Amino acid sequence: MPVGKKWRLAAVLAATGALALSGCGTTSETSESSATSAAPNASKVEDIASTVPEDIKSSGKLIIGVNIPYKPNEFKDESGKIVGFDVDLMNAIAGTLGLTPEYREADFAKIIPSIQGGTFNVGMSSFTDTKEREESVDFVTYFSAGTSWAQKTGAGIDPNNACGKKVAVQATTTQETDELPAKSKACTDAGKPAIEIVPFDGQDAATNAVVLGQTDAMSADSPVTMYAIKETGGKLEAAGEVFDSAPYGWPVKKGSPLAQSLQKALEHLIETGDYKKIAENWGLQDGLIDKPVINGATS
């Protein structure tokens, strides 16, 4: 997430009677994968590690559901290893808890139901903490994000007046389900042409659509947009300012004491300065928070 804290993702899907909200979504079969960390090594802190639920503690592993790619938060490098800001931070969290992180890829919409069912201990996929999602799982906030747009350099797109424009998004994100439909309705209510919302399974494809001129702009979490702008080497630029700030959070099973463990581990990394170092490594320092909370949704 980029410059300017915050963001929003979230889409609500129903899955087996449970809310399977999505925010960073793509399609991938569940599989196990290991990750490399560019983050500072985090040593086990006994008094924090002692708070981990016994079943997780005895396994020695923290099983994490993740959906990729969603650069720069979670994606695979050229060797196929899972990397990113979220990964570096979760590796440090797991180290503080005395656990080995085990990342398992899954469709975004399946992560929350898999946490509810006990397949995953925690989700790590740029989840926006929302009131609706909190009905299904608990969240531990770790970052502040918002939505921002990117356009071809010099295109002159105004996110607040994009009637008749084609806008790329990653499917099932809040941008697709909430933000753009609302903006499009405002257009049609005013007698103007609707916004053509163009969804893609992955964020890379959405970004590429703008670069190739297939769409006029893209809307995504601010860190994602800023990273896309950096990666395209001047082909894209920001359109407008960051808006709709909201907290990112790690979802865990409702009522699980793991939430307190994760909260304490992040508080420790904030105190040591490692949290800041990890964010700065990815250029995301503007989204740092001072204190993690459990269920900190603002809407």
Automatic annotation (TrEMBL):
Entry annotated with the keyword GTP-binding: no
InterPro entries per UniProt: Solute-binding_3/MltF_N
SMART domains, A to Z: PBPb
Record CDD domains: PBP2_MidA_like (cd01004)
Pfam family, one: SBP_bac_3
Presence of the UniProt keyword Isomerase in the record: no
UniProt domain Solute-binding protein family 3/N-terminal: residue ranges: 61-286
Leader peptide range in chain numbering: 1-20
Region Disordered, annotated ranges: 23-46
Keywords: Signal
Protein name (database record): ABC transporter substrate-binding protein
